[in-house]
């Protein structure tokens, strides 16, 4: 297997680099499989104290590889599985975001505990442009992180925002010059890894527990509704129009 | 009726609702709330609508409840009481955008907050001034404030009862963008057009999902707080506060 994701072990933290720069690190089946394996190895290693996720080339991650996803069928369940695994990772995770962090790419970053953005970063959720719908879980995550008002801006407009607007929304913690991004992420990873590991692991659990209630709200009806949107004619039209680089024609069906 | 209190304009895929009592800084009275309620009903039934703009004619967005008719609009009784109508506004199936300029005070501030998005003109003064007149914000409205700007900012807005300017509102997350007054309409129209260019089914389910994600906090038991609110609203201080406001003098609080 080609190195779709590179893993690098530094002293007591790990750096995972998405490595499909020619595709702006779009997430395909191979990336999902590689991430799954690497997260498992991090889970088993009590000496790892932090994880940095970054992207090779000019972008963090442009989202899911739409051609691949069309073949994987609706739902994108494997991506969800990876995201759930990342969310539950016992140690702090830091996303170092530059260039594009769109849709699945932004979800990946948002699932990390901390986010540092390069000045030139563009972050956004574009599914409404193609008639798709993020899962309920993703909404929960956005509302939790940036609140409902900012979530509305991100989702309804479906336009990426720049790093500074993202900072205002609380979507990222810090904005640094493009050339300082790696250094900034390393510095946070080292600082965190320098703190008491038991404290940090327990703190991560505490935060997750405080937020857990909202995850238990009944939403199977919305999942069903979501599947209907994902399987709608508009969704097919949206993907087709995107791939054909033309404007979609919505019919509301 | 000489002139309609709420103008409803249908654009291609969105609707603009304009509060049209400019001479009263668009204060919410029974007629206006009734018109708003009717407009919400017609929007709910129209599958072609993809976004709604709420704006105010004249120099202000909305100065709040028309205190002359406040008793018929607040407290959960009248057919067009503000809590019910704003609840319906917040639950409209499509994205809503408030274009706010000049004063957006008390009920006017809440009207904007019950929209999904807010664009502000530079001269905006937005706030909850009810503590000045001894009134109380309904529980639902306090929850709304916390939902949008968090508990710390809500404390400032409620306790100081002082309006904040557009820049401060932007930093609090109360508005999404601040533009020169002359650009407000164009900006808000552009947001509505950009949103309605997106997939309508996605938008509708997105909105439902967000409401659901927030629903747990909406269900917190608060009957005791409703009872407390009734006490405050019926207090002598509340009457004194309104009287003093109408008479443009300082109120004398007795704590009763």
Which tags fit this structure?
heterodimer; A: 253 residues; alpha/beta; 2-enoyl-CoA Hydratase, Chain A, domain 1; 6-stranded mixed sheet; 3-stranded mixed sheet; 50% helix; globular; B: alpha/beta; 11 helices; 9 strands; 46% helix
3D architecture notes:
The complex is a heterodimer of chains A (253) and B (256). Chain A has 253 residues and is of the alpha/beta class. Chain A has helices spanning 29-44, 66-72, 77-87, 104-111, 136-157, 163-169, 181-194, 197-215, 220-230, 233-243; strands at 5-10, 13-18, 50-55, 93-97, 100-102, 114-118, 122-124, 161-162, 174-176. Chain A has a 6-stranded mixed β-sheet with strand order 1-2-3-4-6-9, sandwiched between helices. A 3-stranded mixed β-sheet of chain A has the order 5-7-8. In chain A, strand 1 and strand 2 (13-18) form a beta hairpin. In chain A, helix 3 (77-87) runs parallel beside helix 4 (104-111). Chain A is globular. Chain B has a domain at 6-182: 2-enoyl-CoA Hydratase, Chain A, domain 1 (Alpha-Beta Complex), CATH 3.90.226. Helix content of chain B is 46%, strand content 15%. Chain B has 11 helices and 9 strands. In chain B, strand 1 and strand 2 form a beta hairpin. Chain B is globular, with a radius of gyration of 18 Å. The N and C termini of chain B lie far apart (41 Å). The model of chain B has no long low-confidence stretch (mean pLDDT 89). At the A-B interface, helix 5, helix 9 and helix 10 of A face helix 5, helix 7, helix 8 and helix 9 of B.
- N-to-C SSE string of chain A, H for helix and E for strand: EEHEHHEEHEEHEHEHHHH
- Overall body shape of chain B: globular
CATH architecture of the domain at 6-182 in chain B: Alpha-Beta Complex
Strand order of the largest sheet of chain B: 1-2-3-4-6-9
Indicate the structural class of chain A: alpha/beta
- Describe the sheet with the most strands of chain A: 6 strands, mixed
| Tally of strands of chain A | 9
């Amino acid at each position: 297997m080609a190195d779709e994701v590179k893993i690098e072990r530094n002293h007591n933290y790990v750096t995972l680099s998405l490595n499909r720069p020619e595709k702006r690190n779009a997430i395909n089946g191979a990336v999902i499989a590689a991430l799954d394996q690497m997260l498992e190895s991090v889970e088993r290693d009590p000496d790892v104290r932090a994880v940095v996720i970054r992207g090779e080339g000019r972008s963090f991650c442009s989202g899911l590889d739409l051609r691949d996803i069309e073949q994987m069928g609706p739902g994108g369940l494997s991506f969800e599985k990876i995201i759930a695994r990342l969310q539950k990772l016992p140690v702090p995770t830091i996303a170092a975001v530059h260039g594009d962090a769109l849709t699945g790419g932004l979800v990946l970053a948002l699932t990390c505990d901390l986010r540092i953005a390069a000045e030139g970063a563009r972050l956004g959720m574009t599914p409404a442009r193609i008639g798709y719908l993020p899962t309920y879980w993703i909404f929960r995550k956005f509302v939790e992180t940036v609140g409902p008002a900012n979530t509305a801006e991100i989702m309804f407009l479906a336009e990426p925002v720049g790093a500074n607007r993202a900072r205002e929304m609380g979507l990222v913690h810090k904005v640094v010059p493009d050339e300082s991004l790696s250094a900034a992420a390393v510095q946070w990873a080292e600082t965190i890894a320098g703190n008491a590991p038991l404290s940090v692991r327990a703190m991560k659990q505490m935060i997750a527990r405080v937020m857990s209630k909202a995850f238990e709200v009944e939403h199977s009806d919305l999942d069903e509704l979501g599947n209907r949107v994902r399987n709608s004619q508009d969704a097919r039209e949206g993907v087709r129009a995107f791939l054909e680089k033309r404007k979609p024609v919505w019919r509301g069906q | 009726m000489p002139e309609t209190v709420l103008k409803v304009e249908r654009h291609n895929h969105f609707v603009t609702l304009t509060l049209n009592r400019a001479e009263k800084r668009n204060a919410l009275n029974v007629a206006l709330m009734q018109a708003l309620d009717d407009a919400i009903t017609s929007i709910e039934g129209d599958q072609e609508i993809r976004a709604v703009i709420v704006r105010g004619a004249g120099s202000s967005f909305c100065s709040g409840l028309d205190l002359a008719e406040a008793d018929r609009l607040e407290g959960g009784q009248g057919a067009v009481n503000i809590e019910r109508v704003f609840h319906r506004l917040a639950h409209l199936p499509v994205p809503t955008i408030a274009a706010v300029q000049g004063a957006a005070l008390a009920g006017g501030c809440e009207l904007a907050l019950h929209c999904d998005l807010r664009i502000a003109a530079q001269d905006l003064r937005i706030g909850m001034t009810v503590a000045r007149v001894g009134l109380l914000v309904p529980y639902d409205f306090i929850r709304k404030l916390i939902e949008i700007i968090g508990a710390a900012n809500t404390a400032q807005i409620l306790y100081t009862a002082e309006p904040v300017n557009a820049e401060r509102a932007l930093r609090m997350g109360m508005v999404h963008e601040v533009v020169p007054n002359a650009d407000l309409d164009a900006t808000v129209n552009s947001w509505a057009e950009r949103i309605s260019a997106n997939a309508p089914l996605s938008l509708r389910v997105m909105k439902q999902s967000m409401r659901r994600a927030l629903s747990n906090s909406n269900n917190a038991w608060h009957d005791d707080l409703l009872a407390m609110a009734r006490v405050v609203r019926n207090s002598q201080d509340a009457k004194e506060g309104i009287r003093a406001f109408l008479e443009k003098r300082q109120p004398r609080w007795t704590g009763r």
